[in-house]
Amino acid sequence: MKETIFDLSRPGVSGAGLQDPEFGALDPSDWFDAEPLRTEPIGLPEVSEIELVRHYTALGRRAYGVDDGSYPLGSCTMKYNPKRHEPLASLSGFAHAHPRQPESTLPGLWELLFHLAEHLAEISGMDHVTLQPAAGAHGELTGLLMTRAWFESRGIERDVVLVQDSAHGTNPASASMAGYRCEMIRTTPEGLTDLDALEAALDDSVAAVMLTNPSTFGLFEKNIQEIAERVHDNGSLLIGDGANMNSLMGIVRPGDMGVDVLQLNTHKTFSTPHLSGGAGAGPCGVKAFLEPFLPIPVIRRDARGVDRRGIMPSDATPRSQGAGEAPPRAG
Ligand SMILES: Cc1ncc(COP(=O)(O)O)c(C=O)c1O
Prior knowledge:
Elements: H1 49-62, H2 85-89, H3 92-95, H4 107-124, E1 128-130, H5 136-153, E2 160-164, H6 170-177, E3 181-185, H7 195-201, E4 206-212, H8 224-233, E5 237-242, E6 261-264, H9 266-269, E7 284-286, E8 298-301, E9 309-312
Parallel strand pairs: 2-3, 2-4, 4-5, 5-6
Antiparallel strand pairs: 1-7, 6-7, 8-9
Helix pairs in contact: 5-6
Residues 74-76, 135-137, 168, 170, 212, 216, 241, 243-244, 265, 280, 282 line the site of pyridoxal-5'-phosphate (PLP).
C-alpha cells in the first residue's frame, strides 16, 4: 500500500459525529484559557469510517511483530510479554486518565502509582523513583538531566559522560541529548570494564559514568564496587542502565552497589506491555541527594492523613534528610 491516510483525505468527508445533541455545541473557550487553544484547524485527514477502518486493517496485516515470529530487538532481556498484562494496563482508570481530570477522581490512581514507585525503589535500592519517563531511553535522559541539574545547582561545571564501549546505543545518545560529550571506556578481552582505562579517563571534566550491569555482553560487572568507589572519589556520579535488571532482581540491588541514578525498563524486567516494539515505561530511581531534581509533579504522602496524596511541584528546597547535598563520598 503506497497511500497514507492523508492521501485518502477528501475535504468535507467525515466518519465521526462527535456532537452530543443533549449538550449542544461546546465553546472550548468556556473551558480553556486562550493560550492553549488552537487558532488554525489541526489538519486531520478527512475520510469515511470504512475508509479509515480498511486503511488501518490493511496496515495491521503488513506489520510484523512478536505474534508472527522471532523478533530480534537488541540486547534487551525480555521481549515477549504475556497478553494478560494488556487488559490490566488498559483498565479505564489508567488508560483514560486525563491531565485535566478533577483531582477528586484521582486518589486511587495516585495510590497505585505511589506504591509502585515505592516498590521499584525498594527492589532497586534507590531512595526515590519517578514514573514519568515513557521508555528506557527516556529514563536515561531523565537521569542525565537530573545529574546535570545537580551539578549546576552546586556551581560545578562538568561536561563529559563516560560510557562502556559495549553500551546500548541509547546511552551515548541520551548523554549527548542532555548536552554532554561522550567518551568511551574500553572493555577487557573478558568483556568487563577496563579499570585502568576508567582510571585514565576519570578527571574533573567527568560528570558521570554510565554502566550497564549485567552488560550488553550478558556479563556481570564483578568490579562494580571498585568502579563505584573510583567514580565517587572523582566527584562523579554513577548512572546505572537498569535494562537488564531482571537478572539481578531479588539477588542484589544496584543502589547497594553504589549506583546513584538508575532507569528501569518495566516492559522488559516486569513485562508491562511493549506496544508494537516501541516505548513502554522507564521509571528512573535516584538517591536522596537528587530528590529535589525529580521531574514534577511528584506524588507524595501528605502529612495530614494516611490516605491523602499531594501532588506538589518540586522546588530547590530539600525536603528529605540529605536531599540536595553531595553524596557523602563525592567531592
Ligand atoms: C541495555 C539497554 N539500555 C537501554 C535500552 C533502551 O530501552 P528502551 O528500548 O525502552 O528505550 C535497551 C533496550 O532497547 C537496552 O537493552
